[in-house]
Amino acid sequence: MRLKSYLLPAGMLAAGCAALFTGLLPWPAFQELAARTVPVLAFVVAMSLVTEMVDDAGLFRVVTERLAALGRGRVFLLWLLVVGLATVSTVFLSLDTTAVLVTPVVVLLAVHARIPPLPFALTTIWLANTASLLLPVSNLTNLLAQDRLNLSPAAFAGLVWAPALVGILVPIGLLWLAFRKDLSGRYGPQPVHKARDKVLLYSASGVMVLLLPALVSGVPVQFPAIAAAAVLLGLFFWRRRSALRWSMVPWRPLMLTSGLFMVVEALHANGLTQFLSGIAGSGEDLPALLQLAGLGAGAANAVNNLPAYLALEPVGDSPVRLAALLIGVNLGPLVTPWASLATLLWHERLRTLNVEIKWGGFAVAGIAAVVLTVPLAVGALWLASGMP
User: Fold this and answer.
1) Cα(186)–Cα(195) distance, rounded to whole angstroms?
2) How many CB atoms lie under 10 A from the CB of residue 15?
């Protein structure tokens, strides 16, 4: 089973290399692609190591135990605190962190408190996607868009703050309407676990306190992420060497992403941009922005949000149009399991916790969320941008 999980990433990487070696991806285009994407991939690897080690140090468990105490036995208040945790985790640490690390601790918290886990599980994955618009570090697509637009994190947030707010508030409202009965009532006191190594826990917490503002300081994000990973690796080598393992490196996403970069770039070199220009529309009026965002959402659910973004990026030929595309590919992947890597990783975690997801119901709920959230977010972008 583990070997099979590498077939698609390895196949995509092989396809990208084949495109390069056969000339479908011209060497100058590959060099330009590498200069743009290697720093992004370095950030992804470094942040994956950071979040894995921070989780192993026990920080996420401590945070959820604090949430359980702050909930004061009220399920609705606890859920609101989980909403806050999932949102902050997604905005500052990326949607994959929320899917992989926040999901299990939140779901286990619900199970131990004898609360139906589905509302908490669905909250984490919806917000992992829909809350991933505000900062460049929130989503790999954002990092690519930031590089294309050459914006600082603050300027990027200034461009997308209004649709980002819609992407958080509308799904929260829909989740409450759907699960308001399950989110009523009370729960009992929850046990508090002692930290295995307080030095590691406090050190990891200190690293995160320094890292989060560094990621939005305007310094290229790969540098603070690599520095944080190096510090934590040193700490773990000293305190808990047995926890360090090669599986902490995100090999599958790294192979899949690298292959996708090359394959889509090869397609662009052979006419994809001209084809998509005919169906993506043009202009910055509201119908044009809705058209581009809708195309992005549809493509993300058909194939995956990353290749959807890469394919459509050239037709996002202005900051506002690129922001509309990000709305589609970030807020839209709520229907199919493969629409975002975060959803697949989330489902893997739920399977290990014996929490069953019915994909038919997931898709129906996702369609309702996308149909409401994406147009409202595009409208917010249009209004905030002062478009005529």
Assistant:
1) 27
2) 16
Given the structure tokens 């690519």, which residue do they identify?
144
How many residues are present in the chain? 388
pTM above 0.85, yes or no: yes
Q: Measured between alpha carbons, how far is 19 from 259 in angstroms, rounded to an integer?
A: 10
How far is Cα 312 from Cα 264, in angstroms, rounded to an integer?
A: 10
Query: Helix, strand, or coil here: 80?
Result: helix
Which among 42, 271, 81 is positioned nearest to 183, based on CA atoms?
Answer: 81
Most confident range, picked from 94-103, 145-154, 336-345: 145-154
DSSP 12-78: HHHHHHHHHHHTSS-HHHHHHHHHHHHHHHHHHHHHHHHHHHHHHHTHHHHHHHHHHHHTTTBHHHH
Rg (CA), the chain: 21
| C-alpha–C-alpha distance, residues 122 and 212, integer Å | 26
